[in-house]
Structure formats: structure tokens, C-alpha cells
Specification:
- Helices cover about 25% and strands about 30% of the residues.
- It has 4 helices and 4 strands.
- It has about 140 residues and is α+β, with helices and mostly antiparallel strands.
- The structure holds zinc ion.
- Zinc ion binds next to helix 3.
Length: about 140
């Protein structure tokens, strides 16, 4: 995980491991591709309570390997283009790209059980009188 330099600023901790599988192949239409999957848990910071939240990743991708941007534009939609340059493609960079794409724009806990802020915000104070909607209904009925 510590290899993914561009992902780290998004994460609460760099512990944990991602299981990455990569497969190189050539499609019947001649397109060379690299397919792969990324699985594992990463820890993000909830933007509501600023506590950690686990995000399970289970990503699959298929990159079409092309020599130029022009060739990238002609790839079928099922491929994400990967333009090969003189530099050897870095696996860590590739994985970083995929993980960054999968991150939520604003990470938030889903509910009150996990999210600390949620719990604090929604605890009704003891001297607060709340209207019970059923009481109002009962009043309406009596007036009829
Ligand atoms: Zn939260």
C-alpha cells in the first residue's frame, strides 16, 4: 500500500494490503490488453465525523495498450486506454489510477452505527419537546 504514492493523501492510514492481479493478453481483434483486478480494504476519513471508515475495494479493469493517443481514441469502449510511452509503465501507477477512480468524492459513513458525528447530531436533547405526528393526527380527527 505504501507504494501507491498518489493514493496515500486520500487515505487515513497506509496500512493494509491490496491484492492485485494482472493479466496480459491479445484479443481476437488484435488489441493488446492488460486486464486485472484489485481487491482489499482501504481506510478513508469520513468527512462528517473525521473518523476512519473502511472501504472495501473490488475493482476490475481492462486496459487497451496503444502506442498513441490517436490509437487510444479508436479503442472499443470496453477498454480504458493506456498509452505506452518510452517509460515502462509502472504497476504502482496503474493501480493508483484505478484506486483513485474508485474513491468517493466525499467519503461518508453510511449510517448512524458507524458514523460518530451522525450519532451526536441526532441525539435529541432531553428538554426538547418534539411534536409527535400521531398526536397531530389525533387532534385533527377530534376537530372533525
Ligand atoms: Zn462518519
Amino acid at each position: 500500500m505504501a507504494d501507491l504514492q498518489r493514493v496515500l493523501p486520500e487515505l487515513l492510514s497506509d496500512t493494509g494490503e491490496l491484492l492485485v492481479e494482472l493479466d496480459l493478453g491479445k484479443a481476437p481483434d488484435g488489441i493488446r490488453f492488460m486486464s486485472g483486478s484489485i481487491q482489499g480494504d482501504i481506510e478513508l476519513k469520513c468527512q462528517r465525523c473525521m473518523e476512519g471508515m473502511k472501504l472495501p475495494l473490488d475493482l476490475a479493469f481492462c486496459l487497451g495498450l496503444v502506442q498513441s493517443q490517436a490509437a487510444a481514441n479508436e479503442l472499443p469502449d470496453c477498454y480504458e486506454p493506456l498509452v505506452l510511452t518510452a517509460e515502462p509503465a509502472s504497476i504502482a501507477e496503474l493501480v493508483s489510477d484505478e484506486v483513485l477512480l474508485a474513491l468517493p468524492i466525499v467519503p461518508l459513513h453510511r449510517g448512524s452505527i458507524e458514523c460518530q458525528k451522525f450519532v451526536k447530531d441526532y441525539q435529541p436533547s432531553s428538554n426538547e419537546q418534539r411534536d409527535n405526528p400521531f398526536d397531530i393526527l389525533a387532534e385533527l380527527k377530534q376537530k372533525q
